[in-house]
């Protein structure tokens, strides 16, 4: 959907007028004006259908920070962006706060921003509307360990596949297998609804084996079906799972029994807790590497996915966490950190993958920084195995000049 109604929250009259002109020049039909946060909240009560809020930070009365705090209490909250001349570090802190509180935050613009910056902001807001329709927030379903055990016993868990493509030419170079639960009553559930419960109940290893078995079976089926060379599948393998004695042999034997080359089954190492048994984890990683499997360090830069993992794990791929990619902008700390990480990875002969790319601006920005591969909604959402094959078969021939235009068409077709 196109952004047609924008609420501007700005105390300076001249700044508001400038914003109105720029937004209308970009096709925004209706611009509502408020001089502080309290007036903005009042406008939201009396004006339905606001597609985007653009707010200053320092204002008399209710400032932009308090507005962010108040917006999280609303059932229906539009995407929001900050437009301010405040210190960049302060704006980054406010952005992180908004994201932690699940606001639909689309970015920060530093005054004075140009028309290109505002166009990119509107594009990100459109993505948020497509990804999360404006409906009342629903709490996650209450899932018990017994529910998870029943689901595993009934074969209700399966991998959905999200493509990875090369920045240079848009070529499909891999797919990540992401766990989904086809719940008989609740529909398809993402990991946020069940993963913590399974980890506490000691079911994570069982889920991992289900995912590996299904992914290996799909990899074998895809050989000769997809219109190009075999696509490696990456499967998440937690350090808590790797701390289990013998898990490497179990996994490697499962792959060999399906007669699938080890090079087509890769593992992404991620963990939000410290490595409990370092020796056992590294033994299992070494054994899998000896059997021909490759590794990526997932969510690099957050949790325990740190520089120490680069020393410990024989990885050949580094995945940049989506929290650094989302809303990235020129000169931001996230941009500088990503640029430094890409440079470091290149010196270590590691392939870099940017996760969570949702807009053409983010695609182009990461491409210009020298990132190798991309993954995110801008390319495609996670899909069931059959849908992934159909998506791959429908892709036009790769062209170095056309990846961005092709993705615009695919994004529009998913609206």
Task: Please provide a written account of the structure.
This protein is an alpha/beta fold and 415 residues long. The protein folds into two domains: 5-131, Response regulator (Rossmann fold, 3-Layer(aba) Sandwich), CATH 3.40.50.2300; 145-413, EAL domain (TIM Barrel, Alpha-Beta Barrel), CATH 3.20.20.450. It is 43% helix and 19% strand. The protein has 17 helices and 14 strands. The strands form two sheets. It has an eight-stranded mixed barrel with strand order 6-7-9-10-11-12-13-14, surrounded by four helices. Strands 2-1-3-4-5 form a five-stranded parallel β-sheet, sandwiched between helices. β6 and β7 form a beta hairpin. The N and C termini lie close together (7 Å). The model is unreliable at 399-415 (pLDDT under 50).
The CATH topology of the largest domain is given as TIM Barrel
Low-confidence stretches: 399-415
CATH superfamily of the largest domain: EAL domain
Alpha plus pi helix count:
17
Relative strand content = 15-25%
CATH architectural arrangement of the largest domain: Alpha-Beta Barrel
User: What is the average per-residue confidence, as pLDDT, rounded to a whole number?
Assistant: 85
Spatial strand order of the main sheet:
6-7-9-10-11-12-13-14
Largest sheet: 8 strands, mixed, barrel
Secondary structure tally: strands: 14
């Amino acid at each position: 959907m196109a952004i047609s109604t924008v609420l501007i929250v700005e105390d300076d009259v001249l700044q508001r007028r400038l914003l109105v002109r720029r937004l209308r020049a970009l096709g925004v039909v209706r611009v509502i004006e408020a001089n502080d946060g309290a007036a903005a909240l009042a406008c939201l009560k009396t004006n339905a259908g606001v597609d985007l809020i653009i707010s200053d930070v320092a204002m008399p009365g209710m400032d932009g920070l308090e507005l962010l705090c108040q917006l999280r209490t609303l059932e229906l909250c539009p995407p929001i962006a900050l437009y301010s001349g405040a210190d960049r570090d302060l704006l980054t802190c406010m952005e992180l706060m908004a994201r932690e509180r699940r606001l639909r935050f689309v970015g920060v613009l530093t005054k004075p921003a140009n028309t290109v910056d505002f166009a990119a902001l509107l594009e990100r807001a459109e993505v948020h509307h497509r990804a999360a329709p404006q409906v009342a927030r629903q709490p996650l379903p209450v899932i018990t360990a017994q529910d998870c055990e029943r689901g595993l016993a009934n074969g209700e868990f399966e991998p959905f596949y999200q493509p990875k493509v090369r920045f240079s030419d848009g070529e499909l170079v891999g797919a990540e297998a992401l766990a989904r639960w086809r719940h008989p009553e609740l529909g398809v559930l993402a990991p946020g609804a069940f993963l913590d419960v399974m980890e506490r109940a000691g079911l994570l290893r069982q889920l991992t084996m289900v995912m590996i078995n299904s992914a290996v079976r799909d990899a074998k089926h895809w050989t000769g079906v997809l219109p190009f060379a075999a696509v490696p599948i990456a499967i998440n393998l937690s350090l808590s799972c790797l701390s289990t004695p013998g898990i490497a042999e179990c996994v490697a034997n499962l792959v060999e029994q399906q007669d699938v080359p080890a090079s087509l089954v890769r593992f992404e190492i991620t963990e939000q807790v410290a490595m409990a048994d370092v020796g056992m984890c590294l033994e299992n990683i070494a054994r899998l590497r000896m059997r021909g499997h490759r590794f990526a360090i997932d969510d690099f830069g957050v949790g325990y996915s740190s520089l120490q993992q680069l020393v410990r794990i024989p990885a050949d791929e580094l995945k940049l966490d989506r929290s650094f990619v989302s809303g990235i902008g020129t000169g931001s700390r996230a941009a500088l950190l990503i640029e430094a990480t890409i440079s470091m990875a290149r010196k270590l002969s590691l392939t870099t993958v940017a996760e969570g790319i949702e807009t053409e601006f983010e695609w182009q920005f990461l491409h210009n920084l020298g990132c190798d591969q991309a993954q995110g909604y801008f390319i495609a959402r996670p899909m069931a195995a059959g849908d992934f094959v159909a998506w791959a078969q429908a892709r036009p021939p790769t062209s170095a000049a056309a990846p961005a235009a092709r993705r615009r068409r695919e994004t529009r077709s998913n609206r």
